[in-house]
Queue: 2 jobs
Job 1
Amino acid sequence: MPVIVVGGGPVGMVAAAALARHGIRVVLVESEPVPQTDWRASTFHPATLELLDGLGVVEQMHAEGLTVPVYQFRDRTEGLVAEFDFGLLAAETPYPYRLQLNQQHLVRMLHERLAATPGVELRFGTSVTAIAAEAGGAWVQLQGQAGSGQLRAGFVIGADGATSSVRRLLDIGFDGFTYPEQFLIASTSVDMREVLPGLADVNYIADPVQWLFLLRTREAWRAVWPVPADRPDSEATDPATLQAQLQGIAQYPPGYPITDHQIYRVHQRIASTFRLGRAVLVGDAAHINSPIGGVGLNSGIHDALDVTARLARILREGAPVDPELDEFADVRRRVALEYVQADTQRNTERLREADEERRQRNRAQLREIAADPERARAWVRRVSLLESVQRFGVGRRPERANTATSTGSHR
Ligand SMILES: Cc1cc2nc3c(=O)[nH]c(=O)nc-3n(C[C@H](O)[C@H](O)[C@H](O)COP(=O)(O)OP(=O)(O)OC[C@H]3O[C@@H](n4cnc5c(N)ncnc54)[C@H](O)[C@@H]3O)c2cc1C
């Protein structure tokens, strides 16, 4: 029986590609008729590039992306606060930088490869509407362009994003909170380094009212800022408002061409378990967080590569199910809480801090860390998720000896 991957976003595509590489039959089910092309996450960290190496896409990602070793913390009033250099990790990773590449490019690259891979079935325009994932096997009910039907599977990987049907159908909780403000993303073809000299390619800019996140990709510069909860979307995304916001960052008399904009709600939420019987949750289906730090998608990819390594051991080497999938659920949930949620929450609070004393303390702390090479190295090791991978591994063989084949209703 195949493994069913629900969701053809970046995390589902990585899961499917990893399973195919292990020689495991896979059916990928995606509700949209074609892979999605909207601009969302755009950062790939060193550990993720190392892990993706095995899927044969890293060379192409470099050819299409932008390598960014240095990023800055700034303050809208004070200017540059501190600069951190991923080059400090040169002895620990072959990729000591962030690779800026919009996520839809990774989806396209993997989709092209999967479409040509024997043993992989791609079902676009098809949604999962029911699921059972008992100890002996799993099935999903599908509804789509080609009609409806039931598909049996060895295992189901729920990679169906923040509003995951797999999570909802399995009645798994998703506790956390929603930030009061919305986040607005506007993209422009103007080179922000020309209008703001000294800027890095990735910049986090603190301000009690109008904090900012400015980053560069090959297609455009992207600016992210908060929109008060009570402001209607139509007002926040009005072309004149977007223009005024960008002019407020730096004057550009010809007017900023705005090539794309999106407004969305941001949450910190985590699934109560990442495993129920023969179903697992990965990526946004398992945890969602603030984009400040660019680690959400990265950790989702680590989830996918962790669980697929375990499924390969189960399906190809006869490893027992429960120790592997329990370890997946424990380790990946712990990383999501201790690294992804903790750091993105701290990053977001640092940008939007309103108390002047705490703002000063934040700046002093960042300057101190950046000035000390050992502390700075530890900092970039942590923010790039390299520390979590060094500490927990990805798909590491479980140490616990457990040969039971229970239902594994891990909650
Ligand atoms: C507007 C926006 C901007 C963002 N910007 C950033 C950023 O700057 N930095 C950052 O780190 N992160 C950002 N994110 C988050 C980032 O995009 C996600 O972490 C990432 O997309 C997660 O990938 P995924 O594959 O887990 O989920 P998704 O990309 O959401 O993919 C899930 C897929 O599952 C499909 N699906 C859903 N339900 C079903 C079903 N029942 N059956 C079959 N298929 C289904 C969906 O159509 C979708 O294609 C942003 C998110 C949004 C919405």
Note: DSSP finds 13 helices and 20 strands in the chain.
Job 2
Amino acid sequence: MRPWIVLMAAIPAFAVTADQYRGAANKLIDAAMADNGGLNRLEYLCYRIGNRLSGSQSLERAIAWSADEMKNAGLANVRTIPVKVPHWVRGRESAEMLEPLAKPLFMLGLGNSVATPPEGITADVVAVSTFDELAKLGRSAVQGKIVLYDAPFVNYDQTVEYRMEGASRAAHLGAVAALVRSVTPRSLRDPHTGMMRYAAADRKIPTAAVSVEDAMWIHRLTRDGQRVRVRLKMEAHFEPDADSADVMGEIVGREKPNEVVVIGGHIDSWDVGQGAHDDGSGAIAALEAAALIRKLGLQPRRTIRVVFWTNEENGGRGGVAYRAWANAHGTKHVAAIEMDGGAEKPIGFDLDFGKRGEQPGVRERAVAIGQLLKRINAGKIQSGESEADVEPLLADGVPAFGLRTVMAHYFDYHHSEADTFDKIVPADFRQCVAAYAVMTYALADWP
Ligand SMILES: [Zn+2]
């Protein structure tokens, strides 16, 4: 074989192809690292609109504002996709320890929970660390009690099971209410809310998260053989489904406008804090990535579509509505990218092919584009799970990307009053925008 053929064979074709985007990638990274537009938008969303639970006025304001911002960013075909969403309302709520000490507990009702009677539920507490411990105690020890799950944080997926299923498992043994240690690795006494699910077979009992400190306190008292009495009061309830909408805008592809790389985050949040990391940062980073691509005059072969999904937190109806709309409008998705893990320093992208399995060439392309993000150490491509709003697309076989960060503090703030704009580190957010922009543009333009 002639030496030059050997040399050519040694260079992967994808690397050669990705290299043609090096100039554009460097410009996008430079622009993102100097950009204030994204931070200004996120700051406005956080401070002027605030948190955005499905069914709330503030979510509807955020949706109208988002459509305006997409237009201001120069996106085309800006529109909303209407969808009905669940409307859970927290109402007033409180929990207090009555015995052996009198003290208020730092609590947040869990999303979907039912209310207590107006006078509250007052009962002794049975504290456990695991579902196994609860099962071993059995009905005789649990009947008529408030169950407290004091499960230390292992990882989100594992520990969140107590928040999701704890109430029904406790109700199954006759408990009258359930308290759950907040799902967080670190705590400054702030409770963390989030969705829970009732099993159809068991009675619906009210359920709330308490701060890590309070959970440990109560558990220590019961271990010492102390009788702990707690009064829980909650007004939580559902109102009729509310009007809401996804928001979308595009950079229309110059060659294949029906082929789409969809990027975005969810515009709804829990009803505490500002939804800054979760997921204002993800939605706004996607918008800013598209804004910078446009600003630099880059028009890819395929369409880049920015979508702000609604109702991710307690229903996922926005993701389902988007898929229905896209299918009805003949969209052929080549990739879906969602950022929903906070705006810490990005390291790369998780790649998810779902049940349909790996599609040839996609991983190689992503890895090659990842090389263009080496400058900011954000180009690592690994197998992983994508985010909730793109799951309906994933089920249809669309390769789904999740922007991944170091995730050092995300769960410290997640679903709590502490998820506010001051927790956003500007340089990290800008790198997220850069990673988003480079991956999106190169995927959309790939020959
Ligand atoms: Zn989220």
Note: The chain has two domains: 13-88+240-445, 91-235.
